[in-house]
Amino acid sequence: xxxxxxxxxxxxxxxxxxxxxxxxxxxxxxxxxxxxxxxxxxxxxxxxxxxxxxxxxxxxxxxxxxxxxxxxxxxxxxxxxxxxxxxxxxxxxxxxxxxxxxxxxxxxxxxxxxxxxxxxxxxxxxxxxxxxxxxxxxxxxxxxxxxxxxxxxxxxxxxxxxxxxxxxxxxxxxxxxxxxxxxxxxxxxxxxxxxxxxxxxxxxxxxxxxxxxxxxxxxxxxxxxxxxxxxxxxxxxxxxxxx
Length: 243
Prior knowledge:
This protein has 14 helices and no strands. The protein has 243 residues and is mainly alpha-helical.
């Protein structure tokens, strides 16, 4: 299969122009749309994925997307998949490739222990996109009983000033809040060591969620107002009784 030719057949100049405004870096973008790339990646995964990966020679942003999708769809053991993941993670340099990579493979419950152990070290790399990879993997696969407390702990200790990592941390915490609202509210009030920017972005994303109650959103708005007026963790938590 000539994957490059098939990929180029999906070229969409209007979409390429749109994506170029959203995705940082110097990659050449052809504008292939993700649903169509997923279809192509599944064909490759069924027919010669080893040959494809072995001869992979990236020229376009979509080449990186195709590689991450093929890895996700290949029928391999967990050990082999994690080896393929380890080879690919250092190549991630933008949010689009990162997030499609994280969401495309759905681990089975008995695979999650090994997957957690695999992603955890990336939180200590001080690399913006490797840390984002670990963060988005936690958000996509570990916001559940038995892991959510660990996820919140990892978000709290994430230390990197990269915009795309901080956005991912806020997104992850807001997603946690949608499912475990009381747990995350208690964290934001009493245990958070987030910088003000990430704290406020977490609140913003939580306020955008339809799964969080109006009463809790009102409390979040007061917390946001207090932080904006008096920046610093010690000034974030006004009492509702005082408003």
